[in-house]
Each structure stands twice: as structure tokens, then as C-alpha cells.
Design brief:
Elements (H helix, E strand, L loop, with lengths): L7 E3 L1 H10 L4 E7 L5 H12 L3 E5 L1 H8 L7 E5 L8 H6 L6 E6 L4 H14 L3 E5 L8 H7 L8 E4 L2 H10 L3 E5 L5 E2 L9 E6 L7 H6 L2 E4 L11 H19 L2
Parallel strand pairs: 2-3, 5-6, 5-10, 6-7, 8-10, 8-11, 9-11
Antiparallel strand pairs: 1-4, 2-4
Helix pairs in contact: 1-2, 5-6, 5-9
Length: 250
């Protein structure tokens, strides 16, 4: 099964992205009554075009919805859209070589949101994670992802090792980022059809995940820090693939 959308979306990026991608899933929007700026006007116009009810409410009501989250002055009630529901559907819908991001053990919603954002920026076709060892899509994830959670499929699988085997059967190379790898990222031979695998900061990939990788590479570190945040590492790896693809394209 793929994504499990939150009942609430928080923040302008997430709400506007849902309005553009699936307006029929937005039930109503609550906007801070004190906001009269251009951003608030743009949102109100987008809601009107989508025929979505928008209510001007006191900021305290938004705080009641969002709790400790920074709501930025807007909260929306949404329902789960009809979306891609399996890894097979994701891959069948891809034209050209797939580029995927696999996260093994990323349980922090801020890290997941940041990974979705960088994956979307790089043009990744889907982000894949194990259902038993990953953060789900929460309002925090949607806010941090700045709209990417609404447009990049997040596929949670029951058995990650089996899912990686399925990718191999489709001639997709499994490339893991590992600080212990002998091969440096920029010296590695990276194919166009690729699934980048990253583990949680500190713990790294699980053994079975690591064993499924066709290639392990490390990001060269020039300073005193030993590792990067998982979203930063994902950005480095994904955009290296993007750069290689552009060099090979006619």
C-alpha cells in the first residue's frame, strides 16, 4: 500500500500543492483572519477557483488544529486522494529509466519531509520505505516537504528486501550510500535506472538491505564531520544522478 494522508494539511506550500494536484480532496480551508497579504489572497483565489470552502478564523482556532506545529496561518481538512497504491503501479507509470529513493529506517518526520522535498526537486519517481521502520505521512511531514508530499509518491512496503528484489527484476540498479564503502560517489559508474538507498543517520542500512545493493558508494567528506543528515546525503546522491543523466542525454 502507498501513502496514508493526514486528516490535516498545515502551511501554505502543502495546502496550495494539494489544491493544484487534487482539489477534490480538499474539504475546507481555515485561514487566519488577520492575514491580508498577497500570499493569503493567492490562496483564497486558488480555493475559489477550485470551489473549495475557505473560512476566515481567529489564529487561536488554527493553533487548536495544529497543536505545536507552525501553521503559518492556514490549515486544511483533506481526505485521502485516489493515488498510486503499489510499487508496481509506480513503475508501470514511469516512461524512461526510473529514479527512486529508498529510505531504510528514517523515522523522524522532519527528515522524511526533507527527503521528500529533495526527491521531488530531483525528479524522483517515488520514495520507498518499509512500513515497520519508517515515518508515515503526518502534518509535520507535509509542512516540511513544502508541497512535495502531495506530488511525490511515498510507497510503504511490507518487506523492503523483497521490494528491492522486484526492482532488480526490472533491471533497476540498487545503489547504497554507505560511509564505509570503498568507492567514492563521483568515481562510481552510475546507471540511469537507479534506486538510491539510504539508511537512518547513525544506524545506516540494515544488513539485509545492504546485501541487496548492487553497488555501495560513499560521499567524500573534506571537513571534520563524519556524516551528513540523511536528506542532505539524499540530495547529493540524487543530483549526482541527475548530472550524469544530463551528460548522457543527446
Amino acid at each position: 500500500m502507498a501513502r496514508s494522508d493526514p486528516a490535516l494539511l498545515i502551511g501554505f506550500h502543502a495546502v496550495l500543492a494539494r489544491l493544484r494536484a487534487a482539489p477534490d480532496t480538499v474539504q475546507e480551508i481555515y485561514l487566519d483572519e488577520s492575514r491580508q497579504d498577497g500570499r493569503a489572497r493567492d490562496l483564497a483565489q486558488a480555493a475559489e477557483r477550485a470551489n473549495v470552502r475557505l473560512l476566515r478564523v481567529p489564529a487561536k482556532r488554527l493553533e487548536g488544529f495544529a497543536g505545536a506545529e507552525r501553521h503559518q496561518g492556514v490549515v486544511a481538512r483533506v481526505r485521502t486522494p485516489s493515488r498510486i497504491t503499489s510499487l508496481e503501479e509506480v513503475l508501470d507509470a514511469v516512461s524512461g529509466p526510473p529514479m527512486l529513493l529508498v529510505l531504510d529506517g528514517v523515522t523522524d518526520p522532519h527528515n522524511l519531509g526533507a527527503c521528500l522535498r529533495v526527491a521531488n526537486a530531483a525528479g524522483v519517481h517515488a520514495v520507498i520505505a518499509p512500513r515497520d521502520r519508517a515515518a508515515g505521512l503526518t502534518p509535520t511531514v507535509s509542512r516540511v516537504a513544502s508541497g512535495a508530499a502531495e506530488s511525490t509518491p511515498y510507497v510503504m512496503v511490507t518487506n523492503l528486501a523483497r521490494a528491492l528484489d522486484e526492482l532488480k527484476e526490472r533491471n533497476i540498479w540498487i545503489v547504497g550510500a554507505d560511509e564505509r564503502a570503498e568507492t567514492q560517489l563521483h568515481a562510481a559508474d552510475l546507471p540511469d535506472a537507479i534506486a538510491w538507498v539510504l539508511g537512518a543517520e547513525g544506524e545506516g542500512m540494515r544488513r539485509l538491505t545492504r546485501e541487496r545493493c548492487d553497488l555501495l558508494v560513499r560521499i567524500p567528506m573534506r571537513g571534520t564531520v563524519e556524516s551528513l543528515n540523511v536528506s542532505v546525503a539524499a540530495g547529493v546522491c540524487l543530483f549526482e544522478s541527475v548530472r550524469r543523466r544530463r551528460l548522457r542525454s543527446p
